[in-house]
Amino acid sequence: MLFLLIWLVVLSGSIYFFTRASGSLSLLKPNMNSIIFYYSFFISSYIGALLIAMGVDHYYMINRMVFDYNRYVGFFAISFVMLVFPLVMYLIGRLVGFDAKKEYNAYLEKNVELPFAGRKDFFLIFLGISLVSLAAIAYTMLKTTHIPILDLVLNRSGLSPGELRISAQRNFGGNVLIRNIFAIALTPILSLVAYVYAARTKDPKWQVLFAVLFCGAILISVYDLAKSPIFFYIIMFMLLMLYIGKLRFTWGRLLAWGSIGAVLLIGMYIVIQGVTNIDAYLSYNSGPIGRMIFAQIAPTFLHLDTFNEAMPFLEGRSLPSSLIGLFDVEQVRSARLVMERVFPEKVEQGTAGVLNTLFIAEAYANFGMLGVIAGTVYIATLVQALYIAFLRLPKNPVFLCLFIYFTVNIPRTLVGGFTDFLFNPIWVMITVLFVGIMVFIRLRIDLFAFLRQRRSRVGR
């Protein structure tokens, strides 16, 4: 009962500060901060944390814990994040004079600008980048020994779906940056930008380009049998339509979309993982429900059970390789070390990858509780700074689609690790690329205008 009381008090405080920091927690008006609250913290982390602390989880990962008191340590650490994370975001907003509710509502009502819509050079540059991303998809398929979606459909491999997915990730024979940046990350954003121009200009060339990019984005989202990418891509598309005024969220639509999503998710579990027992879908600690409330947060408890207990703290060895490589230190990921310790049999069979979880786990694995505190303050500051910046930037297709990309991917990264918030080459590359296009075209226009003006003066 004590844990439940603490949980309710912390949750109430978290809701208050998240509402003040985001402008709205309404499911009908989703935004970056509200998705963080619902997906990263409440559903993926805090419900499971309460059940684990109360000892009623009966979850297979938690059964591997050695030191039972880490149930309570984990609960209080996650409670700290639930309360302090939105508090820091709220304070950052107050510091810069950010009225979250007013500015978010104004952003929703603002018309989308279409810079360079009629310029041929802009379309050609965008087309060139699109061809690069499509080529990267083809490159990914050619360099993947077993393409899981094809092997599953054609039944041409003796490997299980889980083994096919691990094989696609681990036995990729090409350059990982080309796959991750130009194929997986870039293609969906390009399709979103192309959609805005296609929907607003009705130009056939933009419509054809969008159709091709859309097909490419769907393919790269499902090729390795991962269940979440395709759902997140659909969410990105729905957010885009909401922000440009093409779609209005209602409770009836949310219920219908949720039902369709649940059916698709169950279908993917049946086809990909072979789960046919109805009890697995109704149980709170297995199947889709167990994956939502336990799978993402249980590894946080396993991190607490591993580091400073069975293993020493990493002291920065899981930080980005671009940083620690300067000191000739080899990078290790805490999520992989925990997997090797807790599930060595799965690692040996080749069916296990990493145990990604809430960002504080990796921060703790490196620097202990100091890492949990500092990491929470740092990431909350970074997230709120991005949220405010995007709401105040011009609402054009490039900035809008970058906003949507981060709106969906930051919540995913929060339950994936800590070091990606220190340096994320994919985020940096994508931001520089799209902003670079805008700057290049603007400089080109200004240069031509300057030259024309100078020639006209010389003529007079």
Number of helices: 20
Strand content: under 5%
Please tell me what the overall shape is.
globular
Low-confidence stretches: none
Task: Specify the structural class.
Answer: mainly alpha
Helix content: over 70%
What's the order of the H and E elements? Answer: HHHHHHHHHHHHHHHHHHHH
Kindly state the number of beta strands. Answer: 0
User: Describe the biggest sheet?
Assistant: none
- The Cα radius of gyration reads 23 Å
Protein model, in words:
With 460 residues, the chain is mostly helical. It folds into 2 domains: 2-111 and 294-330 and 360-392, no CATH class; 120-269 and 399-452, no CATH class. The protein is built from 20 helices and no strands. It has helices at 2-22, 32-53, 70-95, 100-109, 120-142, 148-154, 161-170, 176-201, 204-222, 228-243, 251-273, 278-282, 287-295, 298-306, 321-324, 334-342, 344-349, 359-392, 397-414, 425-459. The radius of gyration is 23 Å and the shape is globular. Keywords: Membrane, Transmembrane, Transmembrane helix. This is Oligosaccharide repeat unit polymerase. The chain crosses the membrane at residues 6-28, 35-60, 72-92, 122-142, 177-199, 206-224, 230-247, 254-272, 367-390, 397-414, 426-445.
